[in-house]
Amino acid sequence: MAKKQPIISEKNMKEFGRDYVKILGRFLLSNKPFAKVASGALLNSLDYRLINDFTEIQIIANDYIKYVDKGRRPGKYPPIRAISQWASIKGIPQSAVFPIARNIFKFGIKPTNVIQKTVKEITTSKTLQRKYEQDGVDNLIKMINDNYKYI
Fold first, then answer.
1. Secondary structure of the chain in the HEC alphabet?
2. Within 13 Å, how many C-alpha atoms sit on residue 72's CB side?
3. What pLDDT is recorded for position 1?
4. How far is the C-alpha of 124 from the C-alpha of 122, rounded, in Å?
């Protein structure tokens, strides 16, 4: 059985991955007035990898991106160590760590929806759509021509 030809080339899949990471990073930096960058660890962890014979993209980030994206509901204390590290980076006194954690317990953390915003930016950007569309059309035509059989 012949290997399935992907609709979008490996080159464009890589370009898509780079674009996604770039846009996601931009949203993390621009979440005014509460940009989600303290140490830069989350921003620096952003990457992508192609999987399943380059037909799928996996976005890679530190695991706490889920809290940055979806927020945190009240009713559960956040990890004190993480709050302490964040406070140190931000120049906040350690005496404020527990009150901050208690506030998160009481009120939660508002979601930023950076993942959804990134997807929306990619799917609504005419420039990005044109960029990937032509590659898809070219590969689809090639796929049809390569698999055409005369009857």
1. CCCCCCCCCHHHHHHHHHHHHHHHHHHHHCCCCCCCCCCCHHHHHCEEEEECCCCEEEEECCCCHHHHHHCECCCCCCCHHHHHHHHHHHCCCHHHHHHHHHHHHHHCECCCCHHHHHHHHHHHCHHHHHHHHHHHHHHHHHHHHHHCCCC
2. 19
3. 47
4. 6
Residues in the chain where the model's pLDDT stays below 70: 1-8, 31-37, 136-137, 139-151
Q: In sequence order, what are the beta bridge partners of 48?
A: 59
Count CA atoms within 13 Å of residue 43 on its CB side: 14
Per-residue pLDDT tens over the stretch 4-35 = 556 667 777 888 889 999 999 988 888 654 56
CA end-to-end distance (rounded Å), the chain: 20
Please name the amino acid found at residue 127: T
Please give the distance of CA 34 from its chain centroid, rounded to a whole number.
Answer: 18
| Entry pTM | 0.73
Torsion of CA 9, 114, 123, 21, to 10 degrees: -20
What number of residues does the chain have? 151
| Residue extents of the structural domains in the chain | 7-71+110-142, 74-109
